[in-house]
Amino acid sequence: MPQTQDQMYGYEANFTWLQDAAQAKLPLIAYRLPESSTPNIEDWMFLNTSVKDVESSATPGILLQEFVADQASVSSSPASHSVVMPARTRGFEFRSHHPAPPSSVMSMSDDHASWNLDTLARQMHSPDPVCRSLSDTPIRYSQKYLLDYFRRSIGPQCHLAHNDNPYVRLILPIALSAPSGPLMQALLCASANQLRLLSDRRFEKEAWMYRAKTLGLVRSELDNFMTGLSRDTTSFEQLLASVVMLCFVEISNDAADTWMVHSACAQVLLSSDHRYSARSAELDDLCDFVHLYFAAHDALARTSWIDPRKQDWRLPVSDDHNHINGLTGCSKELLNLIMATTNLANAISDAERHPREGSNRNAEHAFYDTGQRDGIERRLHQIEQWLPSKYLSQSESCPSPTSSLSPFSEPNRLHRLEIIAEVKRLAALIYFYARIDRATPEHPQIIRLTASMLNLLRKVPVSANALLWPLYIVGTLGVQSCQDEHRALVLERLEALEKRRQLRNVKDVRQVVVDVWKQRDLQTLSSRELCWSDIAICHGKRISLA
């Protein structure tokens, strides 16, 4: 039977948000995938609004014109790095991870003209800040509020180097260039869903609605792309970026393995002919970001469960292979070594389950595995990770959008990024010895690495999910049962990470770590200690650890 387009890309899967909507007793008609990707305005009723709220809405094009006109005075203005908000919300500042929003988002003044894109343009770091044409489609104020929340709160928390943040520099401009496209709906969904997770219920229904619209538009774009009706670069960029944001929302919301559906779709898109037939600097930059995003998720997630398949993603050697990336908190080379560790462990397990005939073949296979093992271990000890020059050159000239709200300067932020990269290298070594050599927390190497790693963790505030995987590794494979101080530190960091954004995958990681500790405590009288395979069998879940 021939595959449909949805089946080819994996989007025939049932997403858990439908079940969540049913459990919450929300009217399913509002969250069902729309038959039309552009529902009529007559289908919706706007409550708590006035005529001005509907009629007076600014457009990206108008905002852009205001931005260009304002740039001459930006550098001389003492408030050049502040975001100008509508009169009703001036004085409202994002001073924490959960900002107190305006008293009424849907009941606003018509002072839309003061909302501009100055900080966004500075983030794009281009001689010409207008890197792409912006659409003239009107954007309602509630949507602009959600977009600004994404730019000022969500984006900076997802990337450790704020001066080169792809969520702001790439994703947001693509969305603004097509406000009716799937990416805009995905960004609105991400912001509304994040506010919902932080107990802000004003956008709860909108989160489900935007998610349904995103999925419907992505499916429509996929059909058009595969049938050749729409193969322009703009549609391809919309598809790629939308798949990333759908994965982003799935991980934030329920941490189920449905994020792997989006990963498979992105892999098909990146290997399509259009990826190479319409080359441009912007498209290459976006593809590199998408590739690294899913490669990191795949590499780290496979360290928590038994999967005999080889890694789906590869990071080819490039000039920036040893550069620390703000998205992952480490270098591409370290991610490749983590993948190599997993692949070697799977090969060893497969050889043990299915021994080859003849003693010579088994000896040759063991010798080959030993050589690979020693090579990976040596590279993990010798790897050098350094900050790219673009991070260093921009740290003084281009302050981050949250620099005025944070007690940490950009140089200190970059120093923390270096510490996080070293923490992840130590975590990779713990994983290597636990997975390949079956070392337990009582092994001398594990004890030494755990102590070094926890000492570094004390120096780094919980600022991003880049610390989630190291905390998972040291919590399950490094901390000994008798080390209550170490357990307290790991648990404190996981709880702080959970409180920051209330992400479901962080909750699941904390629960797995606590369950492993309980199981170890119950087995203290046993002569056999838990190893990685025991943990993977009993507690392995396909959750995202990136």
UniProtKB/TrEMBL annotation:
Membrane-spanning residues: none
Subcellular location field: Nucleus
Any matching Pfam family: Fungal_trans_2
Keyword flag Repressor: no
Gene Ontology terms: cellular component: nucleus
Molecular function as annotated in GO: DNA-binding transcription factor activity; transcription cis-regulatory region binding
Keyword Nucleus: yes
Name under which the protein is recorded: Transcription factor domain-containing protein
